[in-house]
TrEMBL record:
Pfam families: RRM_PARP14_2 (PF23245), RRM_PARP14_3 (PF23085)
Chain ranges of the PARP14 second RRM domain: 4-82
Protein name: PAR14 polymerase
The encoding gene: Parp14_1
The organism's place on the tree of life at top rank: Eukaryota
Length: 138
């Protein structure tokens, strides 16, 4: 059985304010923001990501969203966020080493897992961290 992500991506969110989006998602899901799910907005690309803490059928939730009158009025789209093995870590200290990043992200306490690669971009104070599987990047 294929695993699905507990996250849903909403695109074209510029017509819906952040508070309106949160309320809309509560109305559609019947769940409570911050208790049952979180919403992270990425305004640079007009996207928001809802990540469910409470277990839900993400595919079914996407279907409900796409059929919802307000979602259609706002011309938003929704899709299940694909699982990934790679993340970008930003705002890293200038003197950080790839070894430190590896050890940090392999820590179970930090929600990590086995890391297969770290690419450090010191000019941006960022790094691309690749895990051995998608479960290590929560």
């Amino acid at each position: 059985s294929a695993e699905t992500s507990p996250s849903v991506v909403f695109e074209n969110i510029e017509k819906c304010s952040p508070n309106c989006l949160r309320l809309l998602l509560e109305n559609i899901s019947g769940l409570t923001v911050d208790e049952d799910f979180t919403v992270e907005e990425i305004p640079e690309i007009k996207v928001a990501v809802a990540t469910f803490i409470k277990s839900i059928d993400a595919e079914e939730f996407v279907k409900k969203c796409l059929q919802h009158k307000r979602v259609r009025e706002f011309k938003m789209t929704a899709r299940v966020l694909e699982l990934t093995r790679t993340i970008k870590a930003e705002n890293l200290p200038e003197s950080i080493s790839p070894d430190y990043i590896t050890v940090y992200f392999e820590s179970a306490r930090n929600g990590g897992g086995p890391v297969s690669d770290v690419q450090l971009f010191s000019e941006e104070n960022s790094a691309i961290v690749t895990f051995c599987d998608h479960k290590g990047n929560t």
